[in-house]
Design a protein that fits this description.
By secondary structure, this protein is an alpha+beta fold. Helix content is 34%, strand content 23%. It has helices at 33-36, 40-52, 70-88, 93-99; strands spanning 4-10, 13-21, 26-28, 31-32, 59-66.
Length: 128
């Protein structure tokens, strides 16, 4: 099997992955998954598509992660893995789509406006 590469995004995080046959090793920015994401919850988020299709331990995944926070990075990586698995086997798409792993969460942070403390918050109005 050739290497399959896909991209996943969430907020400001971008995950580029390279998936190939192997023994289940996930390497993120030249570090192991458990080192990069010490939280078991984030490790679980990353492995969700693999667990759903019961293919944990079948593929080696090399990841370039950039931008955002740790939660956004984990969700971007989950999307990229799901997309790669669908590229590999298109019949798996309905299963992953039903779980919501194929949907790109497009919510971004709204910019701060001038003359306001935040994006939507306003300073207190005083008539006098």
């Amino acid at each position: 099997m050739d290497t399959i590469n896909t991209i996943g995004r969430r907020k400001a995080a971008v995950a580029r992955i390279y998936l190939k046959d192997g023994n289940g090793k996930i390497t993120i920015n030249d570090r192991d998954l458990e080192v990069y994401f010490p939280s078991p919850i984030l490790q679980y988020i990353v492995k969700q598509p693999l667990a759903k299709l019961e293919v944990e331990g079948k593929y080696d995944i090399k990841v370039n992660l950039d931008g955002g926070g740790y939660k956004g990075q984990a969700e971007a990586l989950r999307l990229a893995i799901a997309r790669a698995l669908v590229k590999l086997n298109p019949e798996d798409k309905p299963t992953l789509k039903a779980e919501g792993f194929m949907t790109r969460d497009s919510r971004e942070v709204e910019r701060k406006k001038p003359g306001q403390p935040k994006a939507r918050k306003h300073f207190q109005f005083s008539k006098r």
